[in-house]
Amino acid sequence: MPLQLIATGGTISSTGVLGSLEARLGARDLLSTLEGTPAGAEPDVRPLDLTTVVSSALTGADLLQLHRAVRTALDDGADGVVVTHGTDAMEETALLLDLLHDDDRPVVLTGAQRAADALAPDGPANLAAALQLAAHPDARGCGVLVAFDGEAYAARGVRKVHTLRAGAFAAPGYGPTHRVAAGRVELLRRPVRTRPWVLPAGTGDLPRVDVVSTHLGADGTLLDAARAAGARGLVVQAMGAGNAPRGVIEAVEASCAAGVPVVITSRVPEGPVAAVYGTGSALLRGGAVLAGDLSPWQARTVLAVALAADPSDPARACARAFARP
Description:
It is a single chain. The protein has 325 residues and is of the alpha/beta class. The chain folds into 2 domains: 3-187, L-asparaginase, N-terminal domain (Rossmann fold), CATH 3.40.50; 209-321, 3-Layer(aba) Sandwich (Rossmann fold). Helices cover 29% and strands 21% of the residues. The protein has an 8-stranded mixed sheet, sandwiched between helices. Strands 13-14-15-16 form a 4-stranded parallel sheet, sandwiched between helices. It has a two-stranded antiparallel ribbon with strand order 2-3. The longest helix has 16 residues, at 60-75. It has helices at 27-32, 60-75, 90-100, 123-134, 221-228, 246-257, 278-285, 296-309, 314-321, and strands at 3-9, 14-15, 22-23, 45-53, 80-84, 107-110, 144-148, 151-154, 159-160, 169-170, 178-181, 184-187, 209-213, 233-238, 262-266, 289-290. Keywords: Hydrolase. One of its GO terms (molecular function) is asparaginase activity. InterPro entries: AsnASE_II (IPR004550), Asp/glu_Ase-like_sf (IPR036152), Asparaginase/glutaminase-like (IPR006034), Asparaginase_C (IPR040919), L-asparaginase_C (IPR027473), L-asparaginase_N (IPR027474), L-asparaginase_N_sf (IPR037152). Substrate binds at residues 55, 87-88.
């Protein structure tokens, strides 16, 4: 059975002078870079061009359109799906797709750190590895994966950890799920899957959820402004294991009282948030929910999907989202 390749733009599709890169290449162009390689001998890959943008320009509506394209490909009999995507927002897109993914067949995201016309582009190798992984039985049941620089990571917990390095992704505290090298796929661990969310029919966009960081001297001004701008949920990037200045705590209390749920994450790149200090406990007493070890941006994705799935009761949706295994 065939694989489906969905191209969405990003550096892997980009050409041009550094600083003026533009996504120009489509799915067929990307497949042509594999001609003459073992990956190029893949018998049946169906190409689809969904969009051609840098990932920082994507919207919630775009991500739901991508989800529908993945679902259609699987309904049409694809054995797996590979999505080429910009690296800047890949961790958010991967998790959204994973939260909605209800199939054992794999979905693999990949991209590049260097443009397609660079002296040594990394896109072809990443694409080849992603196709090999998507076709491999050890990828089944693993949900949505990010394949990059010879390794693959589960969607939940993956982060872009370097702005320029070829090995741009990691999963702090977890490590990779697979290694893809020399044409071989090695399973290192099976990620724990969560029950998929189901969105109401006709959902065309995600509700607004804003991320607000904390720092010494921070107050509630930005949280109040986000709520006033229409945020349906808020994610606080707290200090350490989940601590914040008094002004932030007061704004969190006000938001929760107004029916706008607040999720607490950390500025620290590894480890969970936990109410082990007085200010962390105060955030919980004010109604906030802890995000475990999710990054602020992945916590935002979870909250947005939960609010879209259960719009009638935001507090209930938030509590359920972050209590799920």
